[in-house]
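Blackboard transcription, Thursday session:
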Amino acid sequence: MEPVIPPPIRRIVLDDEPTIATPPPGGANGHGPRPNGVPVGGAFASVPRRRPAVDAPAVERMRVEDLTIAYAGKPAVRSVSLPVRRGEVLALIGPSGCGKTTLLRSLNRLTELTATASATGRVSLDGDDIAAQEVTFLRRRVSMVFQQPNPFPMSVFDNVAYALREHGRRRSRSELLPHVEAALRRAGLWEEVGDDLDHPALRLSGGQQQRLCIARALAAQPEVLLLDEPCSALDPRSTATIEDLVVRLRADVAIVIVTHNLQQAYRVADQVGFMYLGELVEYGAAEQVFGAPRAERTREYVGGAFG
Amino acid sequence: MEAATGALEPGGPAPLPAALPHGASAWRRRDRLGLVACWAAGLLLCVLAVSIVVFMLVKGIQYLSPDLLFSHPVSDTDQSKTGGFLDPLIGTFILTTVGTGLAVPIGVATAVWLTEYGRPAWLARAVESGIEIVAGTPSIVLAIFGLLLFSNGLFDFLSFTAQGGAVFGRSFLTAGAMMSLIALPLVFGTTREALQSIPAHLREASYALGKTKATTIRRVLLPMSRPGIATGAALGMGRIAGDTAIVVILLGATLQLQGVGNAPVLGTLRGTGSTLTSYVYNNSPAGEGNAPEKAYAAAFVLLLIVIGLNFAVDLITGRRRSRSAWSR
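(Written on the board underneath:)
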């Protein structure tokens, strides 16, 4: 095993130069084919990026403003502000315990399930404060896929149909089937499970289970998809399938992905946020954060110095 | 015994280290004796179980005939005319159904509330101790309490009311209500265990899809707890079928089913009867019937029912264990 180097416990003095650049949506932040002249950091020069072009310009869907989240008074996320846009994949990177997952979970108010959690600041979806919205309605619009594949112990069909069924409304299988099929197709699973929708979900492979979870999350037509280290329990082949899927989906769904895997972040992300000790140290376009990081701490992290 | 000690002798692959600290051999002897004792205890239990079943099997087959199963019991001084135990057999099924039918919804609801809500904390603690107290109460105490409770005029619709307006308090409904308290802790326990064994990430997965807590419980958690609920119900049925005190005191232990009124099902439920346990008691040398052959035959049938229920529990839990699981 590789030796584990704990991150140095030292507060970061942010540089004079601002490291959180928020380029205007649809601007020159590099959609479609990349200009050749962009310098890319040494460690990532060989990593191919998966870049099908997105026609539409990026549209801001969510905005996090000065968000602080504390567990039992101990802050896990410290005054973070960033936008979440459709047409882009936003990757949150950083060492363990830096608040990435907490930030992600706050976007659909899953942090509320933790009794000791408290939050200040504002998160908005299309300009509306999410704290004021009905929570089940919000979570249908902002759906989440978890670190470990967690399909329900039901059939493949029922897993996807569960997300489609609305409270107090009975819908027949034939009525649900086109929607289930559409969701499974979007998650790239239809070819593998379409013949046997009554197959128990737990008998699928780990990668298939995770894509089923993505299909389940997509079934209710969410506008934002949150992915919490979706590939950490999967083999490289399943990981590649899911990364392709994420990049393809970003055209119609705003995607936020938390990952420990820097190469994965580089492969899938348009925008990257680097978090450290609860703070958003750097936010910017992927090739800028990886190729020419502005903050010293980001440089050390993406260079593999710690974390 | 010899076999047990023999199995302990080192078979060769791991020779003892040359220099054992002083006293180590004494420790080893004590360990060895302990293990032999455990072995013996296990064997003794097996022998006991087998001898009960074999004894009852021999006696049961000796005395059991289809005639006994399908004829009504009759009170008569001539032993050849006292009939069989059809009524107690039916009574056992009715009482088990009523008791389980009451215990399952209440037990499941309590378990769901306690695991999924459980607030305020003091109420959760109170409910938990309440169930422990019910579980620890001897059934004869429950029976006396039930008789006191259901003889109250408030509950006259549950049983027979005598001409003077005195409520009899004894019926399948009142006995079933008290029997449900015997099954309730079992249903509650297995359901709670099943709910607690469902990983938290599954609840989160449901909430993250915009589902309410109620939907999550109904559509995900309860279906997943079904084997646990079934196990509790089967265990509870076994306990109800085997209880005597409540039958003697609260069911009237009348030889035949004695309905009240003309309503076909409700009349029987409001009426009195007996079960196999009270029939065995009555026909044992200690009871008034004193027909030990019939007691043996009835006891054998009762044993078959209870063993069958235990077997059902094994089937249910075995299937649950072999179910495929999440990758983590």
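Lecturer's comment: Residues 173-186 of chain A form the longest helix (14 residues).
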